[in-house]
Amino acid sequence: MRSTKGLPLALALAGLVPFTAILSGCAGIDEDDVINPREPHAAEALPLGAERGPVKRTLTAEETRDQFRDLSAKDYVVKEGDTLWSIANHFLKDPYYWPEIWYANPDIANPHRIYPGDHISIVFVGDRPRLAVGLRPHIRYEALPPAVSAVPLELVRPFLSYDQVLNEEDFEAAPYILANREGSLNASTGDTIYARPGLDGERQHFAVVEQGKELRDGRTDELLGYRAIFKGEASLIEAGDPATLELRDTVREVEAGNRLVEMTPEAFTSDVAPQIPAFPIDARIILLPDAITQVGNQQVIIIDRGAEAGVSAGDLLQISKRGRVVEDRFAPKETTENGREAMHGPAVRLPDYPIGTAMVFRVYERVSYALVIQASKPVHAGDLAQTPTQDNSR
Asked: Do 252 and 209 touch, CB atoms closer than 8 A?
C-alpha cells in the first residue's frame, strides 16, 4: 500500500481541509501521492536522428483506404476561405493523415500549394488511394490567387505581425513613450508622441506595445517571457532625445510608459503545411489571449513550448483535458502513523482525454502561438497540447 505524503493530503486526511476541495483543485496534490500519476513525455528537444512528420505512423495500403470517408467521392473544387485542414476533413475520417495521403504530383512545380479553383480528386498510385490536385489551367496567368493556407490567416494575422513575446530585459531596453504633445492621458492615430531614450533615426517604424501577462511554464512555473500587447504603429518624425513620432493605425489607446519595439515580419505563409511532430511535444496551454476563461474553435492559445523544444509552425497538437483526481472510496483505507485508519481512500488520477486539435502558427524560443482548429469542449488554460499518438488519441 502506498504511503501518505504531502501536507495538503495530510491536512485533508486529518479533516482540516475538505478532501473533495483538494481533489477538485488538484494543484496541491503531490503526484507521488496519486495512483496512476501522469507520466510526462520524455523528450524535451528534437531527438538525435529524428525527422519531422509526416504522420502518426506509416499506413498500409488497406489502412490508407480506410482513412477515406468515401472512395467514390467526386472532385472537390477549392474555394476561397478553405484551409488545408478543412479540405482534409472533407475527404478523410482522420485529417491528421493528410500529409501521408497527399500525392505530390511531380508534374506540378509545387504540389503542396493549392489555389481556389483547383480540383482535388482521389487518384490511385499503385494500389493506394491518394489525394491530388489536377493540373492548373490558370498556371499560365501571371497572377495567381492567394494559395490556400493551413489555417485562416485573417484570424491569426494580428498575432503574426504585431503581438510579440519579449523577456524582461527586452522590455527594459526598449524605448518608452514619455508623453504626448497634447498632455492627455491617452493618444491614438495622428497624435504626436515623444520617446526616450533618444532615437538616432536608423529605424523609422515601430510597434507600440504594452507589457502583458507573464508567461510561465505550466509545470515548473518558470518565467518564460511576457506577452507584448500591440497597440499601434509609430513613425519617427525627428530623431533626438526625446525623439518625436506620430502614431498610426492604433487599435488600443496609447499611454505613457508603453514601449517601442521592432515590427516583426509575418512568419506564417501559405507554404506551411500541417504536420505531426515526429517526437513527443508535451506542452500546456498557459494563456488565452483576448479571452477571459475559455476559448473554442478558431481562437488563439499560447503554449509553454517553443523552438528550443523542437516546435515548428504547422505542427498539429492534440488538446486534452487532464484527468481529475478522485478519491477511491472503495479501496482499503491506509493506516496513519498513529495507527488509526485514514479517513479517506487513496487518490487516483483518471486518464487524460482528447477534446480537440490546435495548429502552431508562431514560434518563439520558449513559447508558441497556436490556433484551435477543432474542439468538442471549451479549452482552458492548463489543458494539455501534445503530439498526437496512437496511445493518447483515444
From this structure: no
